[in-house]
Amino acid sequence: MSHLLHRTANAVMPVAVGGRGIELIDAAGKHYIDASGGAAVSCLGHGHPAVREALHRQLDTLAYAHTAFFTTDIAERLADCLIAHAPAGLERAYLVSGGSEAVEAALKMARQYFVEKGQPRRRHVIARRQSFHGNTLAALAAGGNQWRRAAFLPLLIETHHIDPCFAYRFQAPGESGEDYAARAAQALEDKILELGPDEVIAFLAETVVGATAGAVPPVADYFRRIRAICDRYGVLLILDEVMCGMGRTGTLHACEQEGVVPDLMTVAKGLGGGYQPIGAVLLSAAIFEAFARGSGFFQHGHTYMGHAMAAAAALAVQETIVRDNLLANVVAMGDHLRERLEQRFANHAHIGDIRGRGLFHAIEFVADRSSKQPFDPALKLHAAVKREAMARGLMVYPMGGTIDGVQGDHILLAPPFIIERGQADAVVERLGDAVDSAIAGLPAG
Ligand code: PMP
After folding, report:
1. One Pfam family this chain carries (predicted)?
2. Measuring from each residue's beta carbon to the nearest atom of ligand 1, which residues come in under 6 Å?
3. What's the 156 CA to ligand 1 centre distance in angstroms?
4. pLDDT by residue (tens digit) across 364-384?
5. Last-in-domain residue among 298, 323, 348
6. Which of 152, 183, 350, 409 is surrounded by the fewest CB atoms within 10 Å?
7. Cβ neighbours of residue 346 under 8 Å, at least 6 residues apart?
8. CATH number for position 76
9. Could you tell me the distance, in angstroms and rounded to a whole number, from the CA of residue 32 to the centre of ligand 1?
10. CA separation for the pair 427, 409 (Å, rounded)
11. Backbone angles phi, psi at 369, to 5 degrees
12. In sequence order, which ranges of 30-136 are alpha helices (DSSP H)?
């Protein structure tokens, strides 16, 4: 009997014993292509020698020093690296241990910023439906996934939600991309006006939506309009790039493709590539100055923030991405993967949408393509596809059920940036078989 509480209480999990390149290996010696990068984490794959070496070196130097007493050379170097490559305007990095911690810290920074500025009335956070920002309580409150939130509603702080920018599900028939971008962004202005412009702290959104909706890129101009609305009312823009950032979509930060710079940005997953738990908040000079000139500190902190081993892993991962020019491979292999997915699924009776950017793609399942009617959530098609894929030595990230009544099951692909053409072909081939087999296994009718 296992004494671990697994995600699914009675699950019998395969035991991972090794990893090499884009593959994980279980105790029975079976190899799995990690086409989901865990959950968009393992950007360099497994067992990368540069990261191993950096971690050994750091362990021999210093594993941990509490940030109330010391800074470390490695944390300073990581912050320098992050800011050197960040969009102009983001000037400080706050290092934490993961995505949820980064979102919590960003929300508290946004609130404290207005307290420092003498605007304590500002208290509302606006976020979007079909979003996920983490499982800690404030991040969960900000997220829009009802399934994840339901049991905890009495514990969640009030957060206000607007519809996301999600063309497949929300763009009206015949509506141009431009009109849709304007309409989707207008929802933010309407919500700000409803709540009172001087009472809103921030708008929080994933630049490309990840786990809940499945690799949903915004339509052109949506975020430029969002930025303008935030500026009009002095509301901070927080972009959550925990999943879509750090190169996943082909640029280091997904917001580069939108032509906007947020006031706060959260990153994690690909930052450390899974070699160590790490996340970060990148913040604007204005927010830093408000703390520096005001109370003198950001009223927050975690025991493991700025952990030297985590910083060493992240710095090695980020330096490797630059040295090996891996963002070019993300773009090239992203295009190739997309082409293959379209060849295999564009005419598939039960694939409604193929979407994404770079090495961040999803396919959404529908019972009926013309009405976009999802499958009955009780069938748990996404779980069946995951199971069938695992049987074929393929990891894909499943997400399912209808979300706020609009969405179908989907699976997410987020393979390591080192993936090669033949490996991408193998991913699509195995996925195609897994999908067909999962659908064939659904009860008739
Ligand atoms: N934000 C986004 C956009 C995420 O996708 C996730 C994790 N899936 C989180 C926050 C939370 O990150 P973590 O699981 O590292 O706490």
Report:
1. Aminotran_3
2. 39, 98-100, 103, 132-134, 206, 210-211, 240, 242-243, 268
3. 17
4. 999 999 999 999 988 999 999
5. 323
6. 152
7. 354
8. 3.40.640.10
9. 23
10. 19
11. -70, -40
12. 37-40, 49-61, 73-84, 99-116
pLDDT number for residue 402: 58
**DSSP per-residue codes, 225-257:** HHHHHHHHHTPEEEEE-TTTTTTTTSSSSGGGG
Rounded distance between C-alpha atoms, residue 391 and residue 435, angstroms: 12
CA of 40 to the centre of ligand 1 (A): 10
Least confident of 74-83, 135-144, 297-306, 373-382: 373-382
Identify whether residues 81 and 208 lie together within a single domain: yes
260 and 311 housed in the same domain: yes
Is the four-CA dihedral 52, 58, 63, 66 of positive or negative sign? negative
238 and 338 fall within a common domain: no
Q: Exposure of 69 by Cβ count < 10 A (0-12 exposed, 13-18 middle, 19+ buried)?
A: exposed
Decide if 1 is inside a domain. Answer: no
b/e string for 234-253 if b means 16 or more Cβ within 10 A? ebbbbbbbbbbbbbbbbbbb
SS3 378: helix
Question: 36, 42, 100, 397: which to mutate for ligand 1, most atoms within 8 A of CB?
Answer: 100
Q: How far is the CA of 350 from the centre of ligand 1 (A)?
A: 29
pTM over 0.95: yes
Is 80 exceeded by the pLDDT of residue 80? yes
DSSP 3-state assignment of 214?
coil
| Nearest by Cα to 234 from 203, 260, 265 | 203
Say whether both 331 and 344 belong to one domain.
yes
Instruction: Report the run of H or E that residue 222 belongs to, with start and end.
Output: helix 222-233
**CA nearest ligand 1 atom 13, residue:** 99
Q: Which of 296, 323, 350 is the last residue of a domain?
A: 323
Cα torsion for 229, 232, 235, 241, to the nearest 10°?
Answer: 40
Lowest mean pLDDT among 72-86, 163-177, 341-355, 394-408: 394-408
| Euclidean distance between CA atoms 133 and 291, whole angstroms | 25
**Count of all residues that appear for the chain in the document:** 445
The total of structural domains in the chain comes to 2
Q: Dump pLDDT digits (tens) for 287-312.
A: 999 999 999 999 999 999 999 999 99
Say whether both 242 and 379 belong to one domain: no
